[in-house]
Amino acid sequence: MEAPGAGGCNRVVFSSNRIRNGSIAPSHSKHSGLFPSSLCQLYEFVGDGAERVQIIFSEFRLPSQLGPTECGDTDILMVYYIVNEREELVETLCGDTLPKPILSDGPRLLLELRSSYNNTENKGFTGDFFFLTSANIICNYFFHGGPKDFVRLRFTYFDIEGIRPCDEDTASDYVEFSNFVTRDRKYDIYCGKWRELVVRSDGRFFRITMTSNDRLDGTGFRAIYTFETVPNEPTERTEVASIGKVTTTAATSTASRMCGLYCSNCSHFIVLY
């Protein structure tokens, strides 16, 4: 994979010091409504400090000849995180299905559009960008499994700044778990630092909500999620966390789908299937 911009790409830079939100789209021909087959365009977003960059697509038409999930040698949109001045490719987008919102893991984000396939159906994309801050933000994750699925989450890192019992009186940031869209009394509200925390849903639907205010700053959380097709008998065990003891549930995963999940004072809405 070539470095971003290799081969003479046009570059447009958006800085949060000058603009807080706006729209992006490739340049189209006035006659055909299509963009050139040899187009290479870079969109670079530069935030400040703890800001994050969010991209929400309103139109996306980059059809692939290989199918809806394989891009191959076609028109593609590549998403890069910029970490320590190095670009890390995190996702390649194509097809005609509207992608889920993109959220950077830091103050900078890079999108690269490469057009090499002359297709009369390729209209490109239209996206709105926003520079977000960590103050007063609610971050929701919704998990939707199959009819017989259960959701299991194992937190490998958890640092949500707060003081137990993590309620409004303590002005804490916190994470809430629920088997419903509304509040679930089965689960406590979590804040502080936890080690190897494991949470499991009762059924096919599960929700995680992280609430962050403008008083305290943590570094967020990282978790691995699995969809289990067969419920397993849980084994209760006690883990020692940095703020005391927490009882977690251990179960053997039977899922074939596993991904990394990360939220660091973010603001976005994700539906996972």
Query: Could you estimate the helical fraction of the residues in percent?
Result: under 10%
The total of helices stands at 0
Question: Rg to the nearest angstrom?
Answer: 21 Å
Number of domains: 2
Q: CATH topology of the largest domain, which one?
A: Jelly Rolls
- Corresponding CATH superfamily of the largest domain: Spermadhesin, CUB domain
Keywords: Disulfide bond
GO cellular component, one term: plasma membrane
Organism: Anopheles stephensi
Protein name: CUB domain-containing protein
In short:
By secondary structure, this protein is mostly beta strands. The protein is built from no helices and 20 strands. The protein has a 5-stranded mixed beta sheet, with no helix packed on it.
Task: Please describe what this structure looks like.
The chain is mostly beta strands and about 270 residues long. The protein folds into 2 domains: about 10-135, Jelly Rolls (Sandwich), CATH 2.60.120.290; about 135-230 and about 255-270, Jelly Rolls, CATH 2.60.120. Helix content is about 0%, strand content about 50%. The protein is built from no helices and 20 strands. Strands 1-3-8-5-6 form a 5-stranded mixed sheet, with no helix packed on it. The two termini are about 30 Å apart. Residues about 235-273 have low confidence and may be disordered. Keywords: Disulfide bond.
